[in-house]
Structure formats: C-alpha cells, structure tokens
C-alpha cells in the first residue's frame, strides 16, 4: 500500500509500505477513505517531536471502512463505516473509566506518533471498540474527518475547560483550524459575544463567516485597549489557540475578575505566568491534551447539521497528491489554507 512516511527531520516520502495486519485481538484493520493534515504533522516533520522516529506513517485523522477485525472486537465488523479517533484507548483502565482517554494505560496513543497513522491506504486501529465510532455509509465523511481531532480539541480543551455559558463574552486567540473549532463549538453554549483575535486578516474574515461577532488583529490594534473600552473589565473566557508566549499574555491581559483562561495551544517554550496579577482577579487557568470524550456528542451535532465543520475545508486532493496537499497545508498564509481533505480514490 502507499503511505506518507516520516524519514527524519525535514524529510517525508509518499511510498510503498507494508500493509498493516492484526496484531492484537482487539485490533481492527481499516481502509482509509478520507484523511487530512494537522499542524502537529508539520511539527513532527520539523523534528520537534523526538518520540516520532524515521519510518513512522503520519496522520491521526480520518474516516474509513473496516476491512478486518480481531477476535475480541465486539462493536465492529467488516464493511462498517467508521470515524477514527486521533487517540486510541482501551476503555477499561483507571483513566479510561474517567474518560481521560489520552492517558489510557494501554494506549492513549496518538496515531501517527508512536504507532502508524492514517495518511495511508490502510491503518491498524488498536482497541477498535473504544477508538472507532460508527457512522452511516452515506454520512458527510468530509465533515466527520474534522471530528477525529480538531473539533473535540476545540470543544473539550477550549470551550468546556473555559466553562463558556450563556451571555459570556468569549475571546479566542488564534483563528487556525483549532481556534475555528473553538468558535464553532462555543456557539452551542450561547455566549453573547465571540471575539476572534489573529494576525491573519483572511482568517479573521473567515471567522466572521463562522460566527465571530468581532475580530481584532493585534499586529494593527491594541487588543487590551479595545477590549477595555468595550467590556468595562474584560472578557469572561479567554481561549489561547496558538501556543506562543505573546498570545498567552493577551489572555492574561484581557481576562476579567472570575474569568477562565483555557489554554489549548501547545507551547514549545515556557510562558510568563503572571500570577501576581491573576490571583487578585480569581482567575481559573486550564490546559490539557484532547481526550476525545465528547466525540459521540459532536457526531450528533454534525448529523443534525447543528454545526457544519466541512466549512473549514479549503482544499481537496486525492491520495496520489499527498505531497501536494502537504505543500499547500504548509503554506497556509500564501494558499489561504484552513483544512485540506485527501481522498482515497
Ligand atoms: P495554526 O498554526 O493553523 O493556527 C494558529 C493561528 O495563530 C494562525 O491563524 C496564526 O495567524 C495565529 N497567530 C500566530 N501568531 C499570532 C499572534 N502573535 N497573535 C495572534 N495570532 C497569531 O494552528 P492550529 O492547527 O489551529 O493549532 C493551534 C494550537 O493548538 C497549536 O499550538 C496546536 O499545537 C494546538 N493543539 C492542541 C491540542 C490539544 O490537545 N491541546 C490538539 C491539537 C492542536
Ligand atoms: Zn492533530
Ligand atoms: Zn485505557
């Protein structure tokens, strides 16, 4: 089969790789129908994630059809259409019982990280019963690919951790696929305002289409001044979806007393945690790795068209254009890319 293989920092190849086979009785072998690329794949390719070694097939998002299941798989059979979760988990250990699937004692593996991933014609899914979700054969597969990772990330680590509630003023810093997923799912909870903050004007324009009530470009405007003028004492919830100290600082500046800062971005270096000014405002700060414990709920919201995450797709490719898809995704500002879809055939 063909697969996108990480060949060491800066190197990748779309090449022949051995087709995966069942290893454990709880495994399923899934033919990938559609996949996509995540910012994390670009971090891995740069060599920023040393745990990922040369030879690894990348990708942790996708939908597919079950080709084969192990003897201990109860919920799926050959021919079933499935959504693949970016996190594989046993469903039985102490952490899984708390729905902290990312910390599963026999998994918590992000596909395309410590095990081979979904940017391939076929993928092995460990603990299939807990790591796959059934979808109807005629489902909107492109929309559902957004549920493997970015929608649950935005919802769980941004919106739920930030405790967004009706009437809140919410600020989201970062209008990439993750920040946009925060924007789409925050609207479930009826905030009064959602302010999107980003330095990329075309992303800010998209954010308006997806429901942002206001946008601010910090490269051109003083964010704190604007928010102070408009809100009296700041925003109720500030969600960081970039992963750099500057944007975490914006959240610390604009939060009101009693507010929540929900950090979603993955920070390569330490942020300046300004406890000296946060303690007196009774601020709650949260952070975390997506657990994908709201995927079933999100599936229902897509099926009922409450949200349409296919809005995030800007480019479409076939599997044999995988390298071209990477080129376009890696040059997001130039190509105006949000999410790409790569289809098998
Ligand atoms: P992205 O790079 O596509 O988007 C980041 C956005 O930040 C861009 O639109 C960019 O224009 C904007 N930006 C950059 N510098 C800025 C600045 N100084 N001020 C304002 N905006 C600025 O990234 P993404 O794929 O949307 O992911 C966002 C973050 O979420 C990343 O750090 C990623 O690693 C993280 N993430 C976390 C989890 C989790 O489980 N917590 C899961 C997936 C991704
Ligand atoms: Zn991802
Ligand atoms: Zn577990």
Automatic annotation (TrEMBL):
Ranges annotated as spanning the membrane: none
Domain (Alcohol dehydrogenase-like C-terminal): residue spans on this chain: 177-299
Family matches, as CDD domains: FDH_like_ADH2
Domain Alcohol dehydrogenase-like N-terminal: start-end pairs: 25-136
Required cofactor names: Zn(2+)
One Pfam short name: ADH_zinc_N
Keyword Metal-binding attached: yes
Origin: domain of life: Bacteria
InterPro entries: ADH-like_C (IPR013149), ADH-like_N (IPR013154), ADH_Zn_CS (IPR002328), GroES-like_sf (IPR011032), NAD(P)-bd_dom_sf (IPR036291)
Keywords from the UniProt entry: Metal-binding, Oxidoreductase, Zinc
PANTHER family in the cross-refs: NADP-DEPENDENT ISOPROPANOL DEHYDROGENASE (PTHR42813:SF4), ZINC-TYPE ALCOHOL DEHYDROGENASE-LIKE (PTHR42813)
Family statement drawn from the similarity comment of this UniProt entry: Belongs to the zinc-containing alcohol dehydrogenase family.
Protein name from the UniProt record: Zinc-dependent alcohol dehydrogenase family protein
């Amino acid at each position: 089969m063909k697969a996108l293989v990480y060949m060491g920092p800066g190197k990748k190849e779309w090449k022949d790789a051995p087709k995966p086979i069942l290893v454990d009785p709880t495994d399923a072998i899934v033919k990938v129908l559609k996949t996509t690329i995540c910012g994390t794949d670009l971090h891995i390719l740069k060599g920023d994630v040393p745990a990922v070694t040369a030879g690894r097939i990348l990708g942790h998002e996708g939908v597919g059809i079950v080709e084969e299941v192990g003897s201990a798989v109860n919920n799926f059979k050959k021919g079933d259409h499935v959504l693949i979760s970016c996190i594989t988990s046993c469903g039985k250990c102490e952490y899984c019982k708390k729905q902290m699937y990312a910390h599963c004692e026999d998994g918590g593996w992000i596909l395309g990280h410590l095990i081979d991933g979904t940017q391939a014609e076929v993928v092995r899914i460990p603990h299939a019963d807990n790591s796959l979700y059934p979808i109807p054969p005629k489902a909107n597969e492109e929309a559902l690919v957004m549920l493997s990772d970015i929608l649950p990330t935005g919802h769980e680590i941004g919106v739920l951790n930030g405790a967004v509630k009706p009437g809140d003023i919410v600020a989201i810093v970062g209008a990439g696929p993750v920040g946009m997923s925060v924007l789409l799912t925050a609207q479930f909870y009826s905030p009064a305002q959602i302010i999107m903050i980003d330095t990329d004007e075309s992303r800010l324009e998209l954010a308006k289409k997806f429901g942002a009530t206001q946008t601010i470009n910090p490269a051109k405007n003083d964010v704190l001044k604007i928010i102070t003028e408009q809100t009296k004492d700041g925003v109720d919830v500030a969600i960081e979806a970039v992963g750099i100290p500057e944007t975490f600082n914006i959240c610390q500046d604009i939060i009101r007393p009693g507010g929540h800062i929900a950090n979603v971005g993955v920070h390569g270096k330490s942020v300046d945690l300004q406890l000296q000014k946060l303690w007196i405002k009774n601020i709650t700060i949260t952070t975390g790795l997506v657990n994908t414990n709201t995927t079933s709920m999100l599936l229902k919201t897509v099926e009922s068209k409450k949200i349409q995450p296919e809005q995030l797709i800007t480019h479409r490719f076939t599997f044999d254009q995988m390298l071209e898809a990477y080129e376009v995704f890696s040059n997001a500002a130039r190509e105006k890319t949000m999410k790409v879809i790569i289809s098998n055939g």
